[in-house]
Amino acid sequence: xxxxxxxxxxxxxxxxxxxxxxxxxxxxxxxxxxxxxxxxxxxxxxxxxxxxxxxxxxxxxxxxxxxxxxxxxxxxxxxxxxxxxxxxxxxxxxxxxxxxxxxxxxxxxxxxxxxxxxxxxxxxxxxxxxxxxxxxxxxxxxxxxxxxxxxxxxxxxxxxxxxxxxxxxxxxxxxxxxxxxxxxxxxxxxxxxxxxxxxxxxxxxxxxxxxxxxxxxxxxxxxxxxxxxxxxxxxxxxxxxxxxxxxxxxxxxxxxxxxxxxxxxxxxxxxxxxxxxxxxxxxxxxxxxxxxxxxxxxxxxxxxxxxxxxxxxxxxxxxxxxxxxxxxxxxxxxxxxxxxxxxxxxxxxxxxxxxxxxxxxxxxxxxxxxxxxxxxxxxxxxxxxxxxxxxxxxxxxxxxxxxxxxxxxxxxxxxxxxxxxxxxxxxxxxxxxxxxxxxxxxxxxxxxxxxxxxxxxxxxxxxxxxxxxxxxxxxxxxxxxxxxxxxxxxxxxxxxxxxxxxxxxxxxxxxxxxxxxxxxxxxxxxxxxxxxxxxxxxxxx
Length: 541
Ligand code: AMP
Fold this sequence. Notes:
This protein is α/β, with parallel strands linked by helices and 541 residues long. 30% of the residues lie in helices and 25% in strands. It has 17 helices and 25 strands. The strands form six sheets. An eight-stranded mixed beta sheet has the order 2-1-11-10-12-13-14-15, sandwiched between helices. The chain has a five-stranded parallel beta sheet with strand order 4-3-5-6-7. The mean pLDDT is 95. Bound molecules: adenosine monophosphate. Adenosine monophosphate binds at residues 182-184, 229, 299-302, 321-326, 330, 356, 413-415, 427, 430, 521.
């Protein structure tokens, strides 16, 4: 027997249509230089319609890819809905990728129109001759500045000349709505194509109170760039629930963020740990009123336990640790404690909150050994995390590497984890970052987090270095806080680790660096360190 319910397609269009009806007075606030630009949802929706008309006039048809090269700003929020709701595919480009990768991505996705922030024009001008499919460039401003790009249009001019109503089509929910390429992989980036259905379900997943818990009462500030997994899906979730949106533009230094939170009374924000480590250091010397914030979602890399504890105890700021991937839209797990866990002693609660947490409904998990057999949920046994669910990719876009990662209906994440009896996932390492010492595995993430808890350390990364006897041994690369640059020693670091780690787990050497290199999305880039110290000769222990 079949259910007798409507077959109502899950597309982004109803979210676009309901926002001005129910939440017309809500705002998208963008930091532009020293001013705050404000656009209400009632103003935003007709501009989205104008943009859809303009795109159609430029020749954009169903399924065409429309690229953006832009910071987090209100025009980007207009593109986020105009492109998918007219039936085309939104493709935000990562501003920090090296030129060869950008060219590869634009050509691989076959982008037809490229929107670019005026401040970023020089980058695109250099690459444009190598783009094979781009037919139009649009500068996201009032007019077109001096440029070599052609044909080129001004965003505001296109909108001025377009109607503010658009007959948004009825779309199939499985149609492509957006695409993002994974960062940090070796070889060419891999394309992930989200559907309308996956995006709507993912937005609902984000809104659940056991997840990010975004609500109408929130003022949400995605600091995570709109090119990094669609700002983790936050713009869609905010429009869906009617939360105000605050966008920092290019102003993402700790002081900019603190001022913006204070000025706009942000309640919920999200970004990678390096951002919040920076904010924490700032708060040691400067005072801001951040009391409006009730949730800081931290993900993309492991949130160190000391960051979670210190932010809460010293600054009253609540970090919620989450894990995800481009292939997962990105929501995978969230570390919100259950009723029972909230009864545990405080130290155990912080231990749990430093884990990556539990998957929301919609994400199924398992960890498997080398024989692809599920490992027990005992919080100890290592396995590779596999996932499946309605907002998880089933293959990469036109890429024969898909077979390596997608098997038997599961996506193999490449993350090595333990899962405890409560279903809390802890990321031990990326498969390739684990230090394989003799028969034992050492988690580089555990060592890094412990080193970064040292009060004189700014950042630390641990990498595997080849060893004649043990195959690999850990090398700690430590960036001291500037004021301790000349005084912090190897012995200080090793003594600090000795209480928490067995002797065989300790790094064989500690070297001091100015800063840990970062990837295009602000994560530690261990590839660079590995290449730099490939031939490093470790001292005798
Ligand atoms: P990306 O697709 O660029 O967002 O990268 C996804 C990868 O980032 C995951 O496979 C993890 O290795 C890592 N990652 C994301 N969130 C976390 C987290 N909370 N803790 C540890 N690693 C994380």
